[in-house]
Automatic annotation (TrEMBL):
Assigned keywords, A-Z: Membrane, Signal-anchor, Transmembrane, Transmembrane helix
Main location: membrane
Protein name, UniProt field: C1GALT1 specific chaperone 1
Signal peptide: none
PANTHER family hit by this protein: BETA1,3-GALACTOSYLTRANSFERASE, C1GALT1-SPECIFIC CHAPERONE 1
Topology with respect to the bilayer: Single-pass type II membrane protein
InterPro entries per record: C1GALT1/C1GALT1_chp1
A Gene Ontology cellular-component term: membrane
Name of the coding gene: C1GALT1C1
Subcellular location: Membrane
GO BP terms, alphabetized: platelet activation; platelet morphogenesis; protein O-linked glycosylation
Protein family according to the UniProt entry: Belongs to the glycosyltransferase 31 family. Beta3-Gal-T subfamily.
Length: 318
């Protein structure tokens, strides 16, 4: 009797393990039919400054006007301090910004999504964004409230990128066979990628709202799986020297690391001059970043940038 009971328990355990494996493979192994899709991970870089200088004045003006970025900020009531800081600082530099909240909050305007699940929030935010702004914007930047972004550097990075191509850009991370953009550093989608995403969001088999796995994946990984079904793959953004421009840590944390690993070249070992994002910032640190990036200037020094990205009309931009 004991032997039969032991065999039964072993059978249940092995059966459960097999079901777990089948479920996992069913969600990670992405593709159409039985044909395998091969994709080499890309490292994409900002445009060469010399190429920009070779453009005519008219071409520069046209380019600077043509790149318009819509910003999506995912927030929850517990993020009120960060929410206020983002609203008062860098988000003013987006051509349009909207805060997508887990619930209605009286003190700030937001699009209420009525869910606390970050993956469901992200899905709903992208779906609403596509429905409302697919004909108005070509680039879409999603960030968490602890992220600080320099939108002008993002626009410069996107300068010679074609939004009709499926771009999915940021700080990439590899998890098993899955390569995804880490949400902490911000996520950029072109209109083509957002269009493909809007379609696959309607397919519950390929892109389920709650997921069919035994354990839950983070929302940025879920996004990568859904995009992979549509032929869109994560791409790591770098400057001309190969340094990351989307950062998943704060400036302070990166400098501390550089002091340890590159004590003789702290600045060069830390960050790109064309950095687009930093993450993990407290609200007061965002105001300090705003001061350093936009307000502090050496008197009499002239910046000879080939392009000027003007703030949105009517903006109280710094």
């Amino acid at each position: 009797m004991i032997s039969e009971s032991s065999s039964f328990v072993k059978g249940v355990v092995l059966g459960g393990a097999f079901c777990m494996l089948v479920t996992l493979l069913g969600h990670i192994k992405v593709g159409h039919g039985t044909k395998a899709h091969h994709h080499e991970h890309h490292h994409i870089q900002a445009p060469n400054k010399e190429d920009v200088l070779n453009l005519s004045e008219g071409e520069r003006v046209e380019l600077s006007k043509s790149i318009r970025v819509y910003c999506i900020i995912l927030v929850k009531p517990k993020d009120l301090g960060h929410w206020a800081a983002v609203k008062e600082t860098w988000s003013k530099h987006c051509d349009k910004v909207e805060f997508y909240s887990s619930e209605n909050v009286k003190v700030f305007d937001s699009v209420a999504l009525n869910t606390n699940d970050l993956w469901v929030m992200m899905r709903k935010a992208y779906k609403i964004t596509y429905e409302r702004y697919k004909d108005e914007f070509s680039w879409f930047f999603l960030a968490y409230p602890t992220t600080f972004a320099i939108i002008e550097n993002l626009k410069y990075f996107l300068l010679k990128k074609d939004p009709s191509q499926p771009f999915y850009i940021g700080h990439t991370v590899k998890s098993g066979d899955l390569e995804y953009v880490d949400g902490e550093g911000g996520i950029v989608l072109s209109i083509e990628s957002l269009t493909r995403l809007s379609r696959v969001l309607e397919d519950s088999d390929k892109c389920p709202e709650q997921g069919g796995m035994i354990w839950k994946l983070a929302e940025d990984k879920q996004l990568a799986i859904c995009l992979k079904y549509t032929g869109v793959f994560a791409e790591n953004a770098e400057d001309a020297e190969g340094k990351d421009v989307f950062n998943t840590k704060s400036v302070g944390a990166l400098i501390k690391e550089a002091m340890s690993t590159h004590p003789q070249q702290v600045v060069d070992g830390c960050c790109s001059d064309m950095a687009i994002t930093f993450s993990g910032l407290a609200p007061n640190h965002m105001h300090v970043m705003m001061y350093g990036v936009y307000r502090l200037r050496p008197y009499g020094h002239t910046y000879n940038d080939a392009l000027v990205f003007l703030p949105p009309a009517g903006s109280d931009n710094d």
